[in-house]
Specification:
The structure holds two protein chains of two kinds.
Chain A (H helix, E strand, L loop, with lengths): L1 H28 L7 E3 L2 E3 L1 H8 L1 H15 L7 H17 L4 H24 L5 H20 L4 E2 L3 H8 L1 E2 L2 E2 H19 L2 H10 L1 H6 L4 H27 L1 E2 L8 H11 L11 H20 L6 H17 L1 H6 L14 H4 L1
Antiparallel strand pairs in A: 1-2, 3-6, 4-5
Helix pairs in contact in A: 1-13, 2-13, 3-8, 3-11, 3-12, 3-13, 4-5, 4-6, 4-11, 5-6, 5-11, 7-11, 9-11, 12-13
Chain B lengths: L5 H20 L6 H10 L1 H15 L7 H18 L4 H25 L4 H19 L4 E2 L3 H8 L1 E3 L5 E3 H19 L1 H11 L1 H6 L4 H27 L1 E2 L7 H11 L11 H21 L5 H29 L3
Antiparallel strand pairs in B: 1-4, 2-3
The chains are: A mainly alpha, B mainly alpha.
Chain lengths: 341, 322
C-alpha cells in the first residue's frame, strides 16, 4: 500500500513541484494571495478562485487525457461545449425542467462523442482530422440553435451550477472533483485504464490480443464529449447565457496543453488523470498569477508558449536519452511518432 | 485514369457543379466581377494554404499560420506608424522574421522529435503573444504606398478586376506547383510524407527538408499577412483567428491526403475557391445565415475524408486481391 502511494506521488511530483513554485512566486509578488476566508458558508480566496475558474479546462482535460492515451486527440471539445451550452439554454428557456435540460444536454454531448468515436474507430480516420469536422461545423450548429444571438436565461437551478456552492466550495469545483474521482476510479479500479493504454501503445497488437478496440475507442471519445457537455453547461451557467461564438473558444488547446503539462505523452500509452487535472490547475494558476501580479495580460500567451517549449524539451526522447543517468527511464524503447507512422 | 488524380478530379467536378447550380439560381453569379472578388477576398487564405499544402504533404501540420498572419499585420502597422522606413523594406524585414520563425519550429520538430501539432501550437501562442505585446489595438495603416498598391489591378472583360493581391495568390500557386513537381525539394517533401524512415533510406536529407518545409510555411504565412494587411489596411492582434483551420480544410477538400505523401497544390486552389463559393452563394441568397458556411464546409470536409478513405481502400484491394 505504501509503495503504491509512493509511486503515485512520484508520478505527480514534477507537477506538484511546478504548482508549488508558481503559487509561491505569485504569493511573493501578491501577498494576499494565500488568504482564505469563509463568508456566508462559502470559501473565498484566490486559491479557490483558481480551482473555480479552471473548472471547464479541468473537465475537458479529464476526457482529453483518456483520448490522448489511446493515441488520439479531440479537437472538437470547444465546439461541443458551445453546442451543449446552446442546447441547455434553449431547453431551459422553452420551459423544460432542469432535470430534463441536463439529461438532454449530456445526451447531446455523448452523441457528439459517438460521432467522433465512429469516425476514428469504425471509419479509421486520423483523430485530428476526424474531430476537425465537428470543430469546424460545431460552432455553426451551436449558432443555429441560438439563432445567432446570445441566449440568456434566469432559471435559478441552472445558474446554481455555475455560481452556487456546496459544502463551502463553488459548485463547478464540486462537480469536477466528483467527476474526476469517479472517472479515475472507473479506469483504475478496473482493467479499463490498462486496456486504454494498450490501445494507445499499439492498436493492432491489442486488437489481436483480444481487446475490443472499436468499443474502447468510441468510449474514450464519448467520455470526452460528456466532459465537454458538463463544461459547456458550467460555462453557460456562469454567464447566465449561451454564447455560441465564444463559449469554449480555444479551450481544446488549453485542455491538450493541460494533458501535456501533466506529463501524458501525446504519442499515447501511459496516462494519469490526476496529473492532467494538476496540469489544468497549473495553467489556470499562471493565468490568474499574471493577472494579479500586474503584468500586462498580453504576456500571457508568450509565457504559455515558453512553458510548452520547456516541457517539450524535457519530454523529448533525445533530451531524455542524454540525461538518462539522471532520471529513471519510464518508457523504454517506445517508438517516436515519426518512426511509428 | 490514374487513381492519384481521382480526389483532384472530384474536387474540380464538385466546384464546377456547384458553380453551375449557383448560376442556375442566380445568373448574375456568372460574371468576371464575381470571379475577381472570389480571388481578392480569399487571397490571404490561398497564400497561407499553399504553405499548409507542403506541410501536410510532408505528413506534418502547422497551427501557427493564423497567429503569424496577425503578427505580420500588427508588425507592419506598428513599424509603418512609428518609423519612417519604406513599406517594401518593412515587408522584407517581416518576411525574414516569419521565415526564421518557421525554420526554428521545423528544427524543433526534427531535432527534439516532437509532434508537429504541439510545436506549432506553441508557435501559435508565441506569435499571437508577440502581436499582443506589439499592440492590443487595431492600428490603421495610412501609408500612401498602400493606397498605390491597392489601386493596382488588371481589368478583365465584363468589368471584373484581378487585384494585385488576387494576382499574387495565383502567382504563389503557380510557383508552388512548380516547386512541388519540378524541384528536388518538392520530391523530397512527397518522399517525407510517404514515411520518414523510407525517406531517410533513399537518401532524403530529412533534417534540412523538414526545416525548409516549415520555413516555407512561415514565409508564406508572412506573405499572407502582408496581403491581409493590404486587404484590411490595418493591423490587429486578434485578426485572422482560425485561418489555419480554413487552410487545412481547403487542403483536405483539395484532395491532399492528411497522412501525407499524396496530393496537389493545384487542388488546394480549388478547395479555396469552393469555400469562397459557399460564402458568395450565402451572400447572394441573403436569407441564409452566415453560420451555414461553417456547417456546409464541415459537411464537405467530412465527404472528402470519406472519399479519400474509399480511394485508399480501393487501391489496397487492387494491390492484393483477397
Amino acid at each position: 500500500m505504501t509503495s503504491t502511494v509512493r509511486t503515485y506521488l512520484g508520478r505527480l511530483l514534477p507537477q506538484l513541484i511546478a504548482l508549488t513554485i508558481i503559487i509561491a512566486a505569485i504569493s511573493i509578488i501578491f501577498p494576499g494571495f494565500l488568504n482564505l476566508q469563509i463568508q456566508n458558508g462559502r470559501l473565498y480566496g484566490s486559491l479557490v478562485d483558481i480551482l473555480n475558474r479552471g473548472a471547464p479546462v479541468v473537465l475537458l482535460a479529464i476526457g482529453m487525457t483518456v483520448v490522448i492515451a489511446t493515441k488520439g486527440i479531440d479537437l472538437s471539445v470547444g465546439a461541443v461545449m458551445a453546442i451543449c451550452g446552446a442546447v441547455s439554454a434553449s431547453l431551459i428557456t422553452s420551459g423544460h425542467s432542469l432535470a430534463e435540460t441536463l439529461l438532454i444536454t449530456l445526451a447531446v454531448g455523448i452523441l457528439c462523442g459517438i460521432w467522433n468515436g465512429i469516425l476514428v474507430a469504425v471509419l479509421d480516420i486520423q483523430p485530428i482530422i476526424a474531430t476537425l469536422v465537428l470543430m469546424v461545423a460545431g460552432r455553426g450548429i451551436a449558432q443555429l440553435i441560438t439563432e445567432g444571438a446570445i441566449l440568456t436565461f434566469n432559471d435559478p437551478g441552472l445558474i446554481f451550477i455555475g455560481s452556487g456552492s456546496f459544502a463551502g466550495l463553488p459548485m463547478p469545483v464540486v462537480i469536477w472533483l466528483v467527476f474526476g474521482v469517479l472517472v479515475a476510479l472507473v479506469v483504475r479500479q478496473t482493467a479499463l485504464g490498462m486496456l486504454v493504454e494498450a490501445v494507445g501503445v499499439n492498436r493492432e497488437a491489442s486488437t489481436l490480443s483480444g481487446v475490443f478496440t472499436p468499443v474502447l475507442l468510441i468510449a474514450a471519445y464519448v467520455l470526452s464529449g460528456l466532459c465537454a457537455a458538463i463544461a459547456g453547461v458550467i460555462a453557460a451557467a456562469d454567464i447566465k447565457g449561451a454564447d455560441a461564438n465564444n463559449a469554449g473558444l480555444w479551450l481544446e488547446l488549453d485542455a491538450i496543453l493541460a494533458v501535456v503539462v501533466g506529463g501524458t505523452s501525446l504519442l499515447g500509452g501511459r496516462f494519469s488523470i490526476a496529473a492532467s487535472v494538476l496540469g489544468a490547475i497549473i495553467i489556470q494558476a499562471i493565468n490568474t498569477g499574471i493577472l494579479l501580479s500586474g503584468f500586462p495580460p498580453e504576456f500571457n500567451l508568450i509565457i504559455k508558449a515558453a512553458i510548452i517549449v520547456f516541457i517539450l524539451v524535457l519530454q523529448s526522447p533525445r533530451f531524455r536519452a542524454a540525461f538518462a543517468f539522471v532520471s529513471i527511464p519510464r518508457v523504454a524503447g517506445k517508438p517516436t511518432e515519426r518512426e511509428a507512422k | 485514369m490514374k487513381q492519384k488524380y481521382l480526389p483532384l478530379t472530384a474536387t474540380i467536378l464538385i466546384f464546377l457543379l456547384s458553380y453551375a447550380l449557383c448560376v442556375a439560381q442566380y445568373p448574375n453569379m456568372l460574371s468576371t466581377r464575381v470571379i475577381g472578388n472570389l480571388l481578392t477576398d480569399n487571397a490571404f487564405l490561398g497564400i497561407a494554404a499553399v504553405g499548409m499544402t507542403f506541410v501536410i504533404l510532408s505528413g506534418g501540420i502547422d497551427l501557427s499560420v493564423g497567429a503569424v498572419i496577425a503578427f505580420t499585420g500588427v508588425f507592419l502597422a506598428v513599424v509603418l506608424e512609428q518609423t519612417g522606413i519604406h513599406p517594401l523594406a518593412a515587408f522584407a524585414l517581416v518576411l525574414a522574421i516569419t521565415t526564421l520563425f518557421g525554420a526554428v519550429m521545423g528544427a524543433i520538430i526534427h531535432h527534439l522529435e516532437m509532434p508537429a501539432f504541439i510545436v506549432t501550437l506553441a508557435g501559435m501562442f508565441l506569435a499571437r503573444g508577440m502581436a499582443f505585446v506589439l499592440s492590443i489595438d487595431s492600428i490603421p495603416i495610412k501609408h500612401p504606398f498602400y493606397a498605390t498598391l491597392k489601386s493596382l489591378y488588371f481589368k478583365l472583360p465584363g468589368g471584373g478586376r484581378i487585384t494585385l493581391i488576387g494576382g499574387l495568390m495565383l502567382l504563389v500557386f503557380a510557383i508552388g506547383i512548380l516547386i512541388a513537381h519540378r524541384t528536388r525539394f518538392g520530391t523530397n517533401v512527397y518522399a517525407l510524407g510517404g514515411g520518414t524512415a523510407t525517406a531517410k533510406l533513399v537518401g532524403v536529407p530529412v533534417a534540412s527538408t523538414t526545416v525548409r518545409i516549415y520555413a516555407l510555411s512561415g514565409l508564406l504565412a508572412g506573405l499572407s499577412g502582408i496581403v491581409f494587411s493590404l486587404y484590411t489596411s490595418a493591423g490587429y492582434s486578434l485578426a485572422a483567428v482560425g485561418v489555419e483551420l480554413d487552410a487545412i480544410t481547403a487542403v483536405v477538400i483539395g484532395g491532399t491526403l492528411l497522412t501525407g505523401g499524396s496530393g496537389f497544390v493545384a487542388g488546394t486552389l480549388v478547395g479555396i475557391l469552393i469555400q469562397g463559393l459557399i460564402q458568395t452563394y450565402i451572400t447572394f441568397d441573403g436569407t441564409l445565415s452566415s453560420w451555414w458556411t461553417k456547417i456546409l464546409i464541415g459537411l464537405l470536409l467530412f465527404a472528402f475524408i470519406l472519399l479519400q478513405k474509399g480511394i485508399i481502400r480501393l487501391s489496397r484491394n487492387g494491390r492484393q486481391p483477397a
